[in-house]
Amino acid sequence: VRTEGVGCGFGSSVLAAFLFSACVLAIAWSQQVPSGQTPFVSTAGGYVVDYPSDWHRFPPGSLPTLDIYNFPFSRAGGGVLPDGGASIALVPAPERVASIEDWIKADGGLREEKARSTISLVRPSSREPLRVVEVVSLTGEGMENVDCYFEIPGRLLVGRLSYWPDDPRAKEYRELLHRIIQSARPLVR
Amino acid sequence: MNDDVDPRFIVALAVAETQAGINMNWGPFNAWDIRVRNPSYSGPHKQPPYTSWTQSINGITGLIAGSQYFGSGLNTTAKIYPVFQGPAYQTGLDNLNTALGQMHGNQIALTDPCNPGNFRAPNQ
Fold first, then answer.
1. What is the pLDDT of residues A64-83, one digit of tens each?
2. What is the pLDDT of residues B88-113, one digit of tens each?
3. Mean pLDDT, chain A, whole residue set
């Protein structure tokens, strides 16, 4: 009886995992994913997001949250971004962080802040405005960061963009970061 | 340390990159082979070479603790090192993990164990 019980539990777990995976895939693909975009489901981050298909994840598929680059893995190395390189990540708040303001304060010691502003983006899925606090800063190695802190139902998230400050495509990267944030929606379990 | 990074990881990273500073070919005090600090680097984002260990250690810990690594969810040796090193990362990653293990560091817990907020048992 004991053996059967264990077997039954295992079977249930497998079935539950299968159904959960199917659900996640269904959620991802049921959204209107624009052409040239790839959906990314983060169970660890609790969100679904779309990113441009011509950006790269590397090493392929190893991270539980979004971390993408505008250059192939073959150009990575040397500790910092290559010339013309940019990266975008979308990560959830650490457990001890309860508000956007707390998070910005916690991150403050890590950077030289250049500017801070509050902007409003519109999420196409809900047509509701999304409040985003944007912090621009410089790293010790000379890269510029744009960190966008925002909240979707049940989740505090930050979109982090890094690039070299004189990059002529900086505005384009920033617009892309905003579009990725606009596409973020909670992962319904 | 100024930033919340396990100093053993910083040492292990130097072991992987330059054999702990024995083979520094990219400028003085550059035990982590930061490309833009290499005096021979001619790219548009060239930074002045490091002038002290304090400067370079603060530079590497700030880089790891900042937006590009810890801040982007790259918080284990297996997640950090491929991005840091590039395609030929596997041997270096093995060396990094070995060096970290010899110092009783943890590949998946790279914040500073001396930071009271991190609540880690000794030797972890």
1. 899 999 999 999 999 999 99
2. 999 999 999 999 999 999 999 999 99
3. 85
Q: Give the residue-averaged pLDDT of A33-45.
A: 89
Contacts of A162 in chain B (CB under 8 A): 67-68
DSSP characters over chain A: -HHHHHHHHHHHHHHHHHHHHHHHHHHHHHS-PPTTEEEEEETTTTEEEEEETTSB-SSTT--SSEEEESS-GGG--SSSPPTT-EEEEEEEPPTT--SHHHHHHHHHTTSEEEEEEEEEEE-TTT--EEEEEEEEEE-TTS-EEEEEEEEETTEEEEEEEEE-TT-TTHHHHHHHHHHHHHH-EEPP-
Nearest-CA distance from A17 to chain B in Å? 25
A26 pLDDT higher than 70: no
- Cβ burial of A16 (10 Å; 0-12, 13-18, 19+) is exposed
Say if residues A83 and A143 touch (Cβ distance below 8 Å). no
Q: Do A78 and B43 touch (CB under 8 A)?
A: no
The pLDDT, as a whole number, for residue A121 is 95
From chain B residues 61-90, the ones with a CB under 8 A of any chain A CB are: 62-63, 65-68, 71-74, 78-79, 82-87
Residue of B nearest to A109 (CA): B3
Instruction: Tell me which residue in B35, B82, B117 faces A58 most closely, judged by beta carbons.
Output: B82
Task: Find the CB nearest A162 among B36, B60, B68.
Answer: B68
Q: State the pLDDT at residue B92.
A: 97
B 25-54 → A contacts, CB under 8 A: 32-37, 43-45, 47
**Confidence class for position A89, pLDDT limits 50, 70, 90:** very high
